[in-house]
Amino acid sequence: MKVLLVNGSPRKNGCTYTALNEMATVFGQAGIDTEFYHLGKQPVSGCVECYSCRKTGRCAFDDANVLVDAMKATDGFVLGSPVFYAAPNGAFLALLDRVFFSGGDGFRGKVSASIISCRRAGSTAALDVLNKYNSYTQTIIASAQYWAMVHGNTPEEVLQDEEGLQTIRTLATNMAWLLQTTQGHPFPPAVPKVM
Question: Distance between CA 155 and CA 161 in Å, rounded?
């Protein structure tokens, strides 16, 4: 089994990575492999409604296809983002719009989770935005005993957030259990969407 840890922060080894890495440790202890995907600092285009993906099954912009392929190749994924103005990183959202629009049907039945890192506020609103992607594409969303977020302005401060890290570890533990429990069990057939 394998989980993709998606770091939607421009900082490769920042606070979001610190939280995702905490999950990677728990997954490793459960015998689940992990792989990291890092958004980086390159400019990201939003969806331009060209509908190319409806014809070809691929986004017109390659960065989305790289992430779609990586997500489809795993049993589950975690979306992680810092909070910018009470929302996830805008570049990350631009990418996720294209990823889930062009490849979302391939995520159905996968186990997913979302985590947020922030200095102080805006975390629950940002977490809600990420979880909507997972919900809309019919993933099995893992939960924890509290909202999956860590607080701190630096990785060192995040490592001092004992409650946040415990929540992240609980989330990873519950996600590992879901992955192991659902392995080999087919997801129910898709119900056609009414549009």
Answer: 10
Pick from 89, 86, 102, 8: nearest CA to 47: 102
Position 186 pLDDT exceeds 90? no
Over residues 4-15, the pLDDT tens digits come to 999 999 999 999
15-29 and 162-182 helices, crossing angle to 10°: 50
Extract the runs of DSSP E, i.e. beta strands, from 53-181: 76-84, 87-88, 111-118, 140-141, 149-151
Tokens read off for 164:
């946040």
157: Cα separation from own chain's centroid: 22
Entry field: residues in the chain: 195
d(CA 178, CA 77): 12
Closest by CA to 38, choosing from 79, 2, 72, is 79
| pTM beyond 0.85, yes or no | yes
Can you tell me the distance from the alpha carbon of 17 to that of 177, in angstroms, rounded to the nearest whole number? 22
